Amino acid sequence: MGSDDLEARQLRSSNILLNLLRTVSILIMISLVLPVLNPARLSGLISKDSALLTISLSYQSLTSGFIRALNRGWMEESTLTLIYIASVIITIGIVILSAGCFMTLGKIRLQKLGARLSAIGSAIGMPGLVMLIPAYNAMSQTSNPGKVEPMFPIGVYVFFGLLALNFAISLITAIKLPKPQAADRYEMEAKYQLFLMILPFVILTFVFAYLPLWGWRYAFFNYKPGLGLNEFVGFKWFTFLFENSATRRDIIRVITNTLAMSGIGIATSWLPMAFAIFLAEIKSAKVSRMVQTFTTIPNFISWVLVYTFAFALFSTEGFVNSMLIDLGLIEKGRNFLMDGDHIWLKMWAWGTWKGLGWSAIIYIAGISGIDQQLYEAATIDGAGRFRKMWNITVPGLIPTYSVLLLLSIAGILSNGMDQYFVFKNSANKETIEVLDLYVYTLGLGSGGSGNIPLATVVGMLKSIISVTLLFTANRISKLVRGETIV
Amino acid sequence: MDEVYNTKQALKPQKKRKHRYKRTKGDIIFNIINYTVYILFTLICVFPFYYLLINTISANELVRTGQIKLYPIGIHFKNYIALANVNNLGSSVMVSVARTVIGTATMVLASAFVGYLVTKRNMWGRRFIYRFLIITMYFNAGLIPWYLTMSMLGLTNNFWGYIIPGIVAPYNIILVKTYIESIPAELEESAFVDGAGYFTIFRKIIWPLSKPILATIAIFGAVGHWNSFTDSMILMSGKPELYTLQYRLYIYLSSTSNLSALMNSGGAVNKSILDAALNMRTVKLTVAMVTIIPILLVYPFMQRYFEKGIMIGAVKG
User: Fold this and answer.
1) With an 8 Å Cβ cutoff, is A440 touching chain B?
2) In a domain, A221, yes or no
3) Rounded to whole angstroms, what are the CA distances from A400 to A278, A374, B317?
4) ipTM for this prediction
5) A167 and A262: one domain?
6) N or C: which terminal CB in chain A sees fewer CB atoms within 10 Å?
């Protein structure tokens, strides 16, 4: 009884220790990717946006700001090399420590090994941090402190504290954990094994899909390329968007274009369904197959290639001009691509050319899923071709159609930028620019002098409205059809 | 698996419809109109490809002045040989091929593995993890924050910037997961009893059995990689040697500079240009043709798979 009690208490205390170890390890891993806590940022010339991990992965990301400083001899390159070596050592330590941390999810033998590795990792990382001190001293001897801005970042203390703490906890855990029995093996419960297997992909998703959300903070700051965020300005860029008459005009124009082009798309969204329905009336399997094959190809080429076709067919020496001249309709060719009229319709036409056959596939499959007996019964009742289409085929396809329609309404603001980017030119830029293209042009399109915060604001508002629309559409679908779409 | 089998059946063109109409006059008119419309649209879809082709193999002087309309005149293939001298084209082809191969391979491997893992109900935190992965299909932070993140990670002006963000593809994960769930569970269980680990089961059982769906996502992934150009423009602006073929083509198309600026200089080259009477129009169109050819080559194989993909995708994950 007494020994059971003791064992239970021992188990509980080692569980607490293990949880503590995991928490601290995870904090260290997070610090590794936080630019704010970068301990290697010993100079203002190191980008505010790079985390310790960035620096240890690429030497270039460390040195890129120092080209002038090195050329002018303000400092030695060996300082940078030292910083780089230190960063790599710290990162290696943290990688080992993380491996140890994940091993503690296993059974006793793995736990013990994990705790040891965690201690070793922390022990490797700490000298790396210490190496930053001579690097800082070398940095502060620069001949131009005003430009090089030597600094001793707070990250050094944070990292040192965390690593020391982790070292102590791991050591205690390693000692306190009960001795494994001879029968114990290095093994882990299946549920944790599976978790660890999927973890790398969860991290990738986090980095590329969730971490950018953190970039929304750019909307609240002034931003200078290379210097990162310098001053918090609250909602300045939000009000600027609507108060500055030039941007307000742009926004209204761009939203009009976006809604118009999406609107034309939605208004004609029944076309693929009609395409499929009338294609089913073609009784020759060969012809039907051929139509399907060739109308689907355009979906698989890029918008650049579509533009090449437009160029080949509609430019001054293109097919259309040659034919018109041959027919004697015009005297001299002109470049139709530089014609800014009816851009919305032209873009819709190209989109339809590219996508109609492809979008019809889902309806073609839907039609063959409709019960044939319905048609036979209708024929006996004397229903004609169009009657059957309207009363049997169309109702059979409406569920699919309504899902796609709801999705396209939810995506009304997102028509992508590829198509409009390639077709844009000086004659049509007023009517072709959609939101996605506007965000690009505003933020990145002008060769580094773009307005990053303002572009972030527009993108952010767009994302929020789109998600809201999607959830509304989902709710509507649930109410009307009793089924969700996402 | 039944589901997939049925889909395949369902996608056969409608031969089964047996009821025959009595051919009235109206039917005949309807058929004439119907066939005409479809054949016209099909021609409109195909003609640009054909027009591009005949313009790259016809006499270049005629192409420059727009004389090649419906059939080629003075057939030659010098343009394709002359492409060897177009600046930067070689490196762009290399980049495009490399990103298509590496990007597709990593994406397919990851989708297969993750798709398999999320079918395991005993995974710790499975529900949360699955949602965490899938929900990313429905929102994104926007172009600028994404670009800044990529830049912070050192993935701008870096070849891996094409590959790494595309490894986890939620939609493909759903496709694979749905497919694997249709594989009889007994197959896996018996292997598990035999002491095989998850990796072994994945390699020996799941991977071979999921080949049809993996082929589907591989094709879509490859086409996506081959066709993308905006990421090239946004991420690689500081390193033109990493531009993809598509973006290079866009640059050629929008360039107004003369031919000699586009081609490598040098006596021998100039001679070959003169021989072929190359001009901007033929160079642009020939580069485009080279960009299309890979798609046209894989298209017949793709057709078998993409319809299947679309149908499985319609079944929600």
Assistant:
1) yes
2) no
3) 17, 19, 16
4) 0.86
5) no
6) N
